[in-house]
């Protein structure tokens, strides 16, 4: 385990898991980095995944109003002793809460130049559309 991992593990044991949660993002950026754009009824998520050898190495899951990315980035080390470690590699998992529920039957994902681009479309159920409501007449008796 690297020094950061050991340090984090010791703090988790001492202060508890809840203590560390908010501070981890300050110490180490979330992986992968994500930009999320909202259009009328569409969301576009762009995830920075340099070093991803093939798009099959990332899984994209959509659950109502959340998007989860899970996979593995492998930076080719080719032996030698690592002197700097700034490029994130290894297994990752990140879940992002979306501003609205999205359709699970209409998702488009593509990968090019180290960017995973995911297009999601707002879920509009029949219950959210305008619906005529019958008004019943009640006797005052």
Automatic annotation (TrEMBL):
Pfam families cross-referenced by the UniProt entry: HSP20 (PF00011)
PROSITE patterns hit by this protein: SHSP
Alphabetized SUPFAM superfamilies for the sequence: HSP20-like chaperones
InterPro entries membership: A-crystallin/Hsp20_dom (IPR002068), HSP20-like_chaperone (IPR008978)
Domain SHSP residues, every copy: 25-138
Family: Belongs to the small heat shock protein (HSP20) family.
Protein name: Hsp20/alpha crystallin family protein
Organism: Halobacillus salinarum
Lineage, highest ranks first: Bacteria, Bacillati, Bacillota, Bacilli, Bacillales
